[in-house]
Amino acid sequence: MSASADDRGAGTRAAGRWLLDQAHLARGAMAATVGAGLADALLVVVQALLIAWIIDQAVIHQVALSELTGTLALLAAVFLARAGATWGRAAAGARAGWIITAAVRRRLYRHLADLGPVRLQAHHSGSVASALVEQVEALEGYYAHSLPQMVLAVTAPVLFIAIVAAVDLLAGLLLLIAAPLVPLFMALVGMGAARLSRRQQQSLARISAHFLDRLRGLATLRIFRATAAAAEAVEAAAEEYRRRSMSVLRVAFLSSAALELIAAISIALVAIYVGFSLLGYLHFGPGPELGLFAGLFILLLAPEVFFPLRRLAQHYHDRAAAVGAGAEILQLLDEPLPPARVSEGQPVAPVQRDARTDLPVPRPAPVRFEQVVVAFPGTAAAALDGFDLSIPAGQRVVISGPSGAGKSTLLHLAAGFLQPDGGAVTVGGVAPAAGQAAWVGQRPWLFHGSVRENLQLADPQADDPRLWAALRHADLDAVIAALPQGLDTPLGEDAHGLSGGQASRLALARALLSGAPLLLLDEPTAGLDPDSRERVLAAVARLADGRRTVLMVAHDRDTHDWGDRHLVIAAGRCVEDRHA
Amino acid sequence: MRELIPFLRDLRPERWRLALGTLLLIATLAASIGLMGLSGWFITATAVAGVTGAYLDIYRPSAGIRFFALARSISRYFERLVHHDAVLRTLARLRGWLFRTLAPLPLAQVGRLRRSDLLNRMTADVEALDNLYLRIVGPTLAAVVTLGATVAVLVLVAGPAGWAVGAVLLAGGVLLPLWAWRRGSPHGEAVDRHLPALRGAGVDAVQGLAELRACGAVARHEQRLMAAADGLAAARARAARLTGAGEGAVGLLAHGALLAALIVGIPLYQSGAVSGPLLALVALAALAAGEALTALPGAWQHLGRTRAAARRLLEHADADTGAAAPRPEGPPRQALGLALEAVTFRHEAHMPPVLRDCSLTLAPGETVVVHGPSGCGKSTLLDLAAGLARPDEGTVTLGGAPVAELPEAQRFARLTYLTQRTELFADSVAGNLRIADPAADEGELWRALHIAALDERVRGAPRGLHEWVGEGGGRLSGGEARRLALARLVLADAPVVLLDEPFRGLDDDTAACVARRLAPWLAERTALIISHDPDHAPAHDRRLAFLELNAPGGE
After folding, report:
1. Looking at residue B151, what is its pLDDT?
2. What residues does B343 pair with on adjacent strands?
């Protein structure tokens, strides 16, 4: 077996163990789910008993219906109780799934937040987001259906076989012949179902992906007059997957057919055995003493032995999906956290406000890098090795240098996204903390929500006049005012009607609303045309205004004359330090 | 239900396969009922015979029991196979249908589809419809036939006891699915509503983590994320409880049928109208008949969602711009001019115009570069020239003919357009190129790659032209993807060319190389190029500042 297959096997086993551990998060609900299932199993026994007894009394002992009303009423009560147990099981299972997915999602979110944006860069952002949303959702079915059923698939058949054996040893033995086969067939069904569901999911996912890919590119297909051909290709791809998955299904369905066959044959054999015994054809074992009551009772219980197994096979894909999802979640949770977590207190206490604009007027903070060492795992050379830099309060510093020189690392350190492996970074004399540094990245993220919600991220209490003041300073008020719903215009992925420069200015407005004494900008003008660049830089200047220390990483030559000081970083060292 | 009719009609080509599947499903159910009923009869008959000592033919009933046992397993196996095959076939057809439906939509609408979550939604909707037959139509049909036949047999052998069973099963079998459908619809809608909110919050958490950390908003966003998750989980839990209630109700129904059989059957037996074994047969068959209904409430619960999916899909099924027409042969080879005359354009009626009284004329064979700041509407100029946007005032002509009046297939035979966005497909290099010209041989592909300065890179790749470019061209760098899109454009070989920032993402040396190689190709064509940096644009005859094109009085 190849190493990667071993790894995958180990990963699957680890994910399976982890999934089982999480069941403790909802002990009560899980116990209620299994309990309802067990109660139903017990009711099945009572029900079989009552039905057999009623028929036996009526047929063999000629008891009149009027004398059986009590028993019939009891039977009706059992039926109602079973319906209740079925409902209770679904409700408790859903509850367990809810509790556990919520807890796992919360834990994963906190872990990701603690890892910070820099460490997350090692992962594909789409797959991390999908872990937080879709993969956590995929766990639900495991706790709601598959795990409780795994317990019931072992306990309920044992209970039924034991009871049948107590009534008639030979019939019990007959069912027990199937019992050693049961684990075998469970494994068979399991493997078959796992393979089946994996292949099915894969091929479905591939068809969907191909389809979605061509739909996304519809404009391009139109321009190249290729839509008719693409429509045929979409159908052909789906047809090809059909042929492939059918050849898999033909084999995979066999394993569950085998389970069905064993169940059906066992029931048939029990029925024939009981019949022959009742006729007195069998002169061995307990058969001769068997009456109609016991015979019918056994017959009614025989299919129930196999029913939990059938149900387990139906829910097997829940487990397969959960194991796959669990492996991805575990991979993120296993990523070690940085040594010290940035405490997330309130933003630096009482902020002074400008009387006219109501915007915060922070006292600029000095920034110091002392003998800072940062090593990135997997790379031989340290990104920073004994780096020293002192930035006085209120200074506006532009940092440039070739890519990979460590410019962004400096910003990440000052923001507290990254902790130094050696030395110290201080902002205003203390370690970087939330609320101390405002962040404007290269492509500022606009959150799903309105313009207002995006701005209030930095200042939840901000009222409309304050928001408009911030927008005015960021040179964005006219743009927002022209939007159909103004501050309530929804933004999101592919920001509605905002260009790259406008998105940067929105991030600057956000920075203005925070009382942070330090402003960190990672190439805010990259990819902008000269006019947009000027507007952004002017907004940054208004933002700084002696109230904030500014550290800006910039590539463009035009930006380098901006600010009070220009640093050039190469290979983790400061090779040029020029004051304006 | 009208919205489902076109999709049910869509199942017509599979009708024999689906009919066979349903027949096998009926056989499976009938065998289950037969197995339990006959076993009950057999045991009771043997017990009676054991007591009275009467003769009983045991061989035919026990052979019947074995037959039903085998038949059930075998027909179940083939039923699953046939149904899955039919559904996978329908899946292929439905996707083709949706693609053909969306293909001719106005392109502005297509752009909106791509940006929103709508496409994901549509693929999910198609999948919801795949289940229409497998989960709803087939099992319902099978239940009706099986229960009908079972009740008929029971009435035949046991008269009123059969009627009693039939009455319970019929009443429950009709009411239960309808009840599940009515109750289930709001839950499905709630799930549909909450899922995008959760997805948005999840993407925000990952992509906006730097902002969240810097703003000290990690805890606040956690509340938002968990509130969205709780909304979804609550809707799911409600749906699950409903499913559980449906399952419980089906059980109750089967048990009710059994009870009815006993209450009506016992006096019949004791009056001698029905034999003891038949009484057991009716009772156990009634119990087993419940299996035919097991899946129905759960399936009908989702009918509301399926209908909503069908409605959403049909909304897009009206427009026709003739875009899906087969590729016309022989694009016109002669040089064409391009002219915008006094064009005014607004994105929205209430917004200030992006273009105001703008005029621009390109002589046949001329190459013009328009430059200007980003976000000022340069790309709109190309959209108008390509006929993808309609001017509010003024006209756009291509070779003297109004662009708006040219059918799309003819228009794009005359002009080709490198859009601002690089749009590549999850396919090989060759597959992406052949979108522009399905008939191109390898020599032509290499020539196009050479012009885009991508030939060496492709030659160096392990699988050459067959190298996979990944989803959206994700395995290529931004510059490589841009060059592949350029090579594709070259292959399209139209007399008029529109280029929007053709060298975006290319370093200066590569851009210069591509510009050099592109020059002779462009020289034979009319080209309108947009660039924020005209000094690094391909060779051109004329350059214009975008803002000067507009009449004064803009933003």
Report:
1. 93
2. B358
Could you tell me if B297 and B346 lie in one domain?
Answer: no
When pLDDT is averaged across residues B452-458 and rounded to a whole number, the result is: 92
How far, in Å, CA of A290 to CA of A298, rounded?
Answer: 10
Fold of A367-579: Rossmann fold (3.40.50)
Residue B220 lies in a domain: no
Closest CA to B87 of B18, B139, B22: B18
Looking at residue A495, what is its pLDDT? 46
- The answer to whether residue B325 is domain-embedded is no
Pairwise CB contact (< 8 Å): B244 & A86: yes
User: What does the alpha-carbon distance between residue B552 and residue B555 come to, in Å, rounded to a whole number?
Assistant: 9
Q: Tell me the average pLDDT of chain B.
A: 85
**Is A501 in Cβ contact with B375 (below 8 Å)?**
yes
Residues of B whose CB is below 8 A from A360: none
The four Cα atoms A266, A269, A270, A275 give a dihedral, to 10 degrees, of: 160
Domain span at residue B534 reads 338-549
The verdict on a CB contact (< 8 Å) between A434 and B237 is no
Which of A218, A351, A506 to mutate: most B Cβ within 10 Å? A218
Hunting for tokens 């050849």 — which residue is that?
Answer: A247
Where does A3-333 sit in CATH, by number? 1.20.1560.10
Q: pLDDT tier at B110 (50, 70, 90 boundaries)?
A: low
**Could you tell me which residues are beta bridge partners of residue A240?**
none
Please count the structural domains in chain B: 2
- Domain of B112, CATH number, reads 1.20.1560.10
Q: Tell whether the model's pLDDT for residue B539 goes beyond 80.
A: yes
Q: Residue A185 has what pLDDT?
A: 65
Whether residue A83 and residue B251 make contact (CB cut-off 8 A), yes or no, is yes
Cβ pair B200:A448 closer than 8 A: yes
Instruction: State residue A197's pLDDT score.
Output: 62
Last residue of a domain, one of B268, B283, B315: B315
- Among A62, A101, A261, whose Cβ lies nearest the Cβ of B73? A261
Render pLDDT for B217-250 as a digit per residue (tens, 0 to 9): 999 999 999 999 999 999 999 999 999 999 999 9
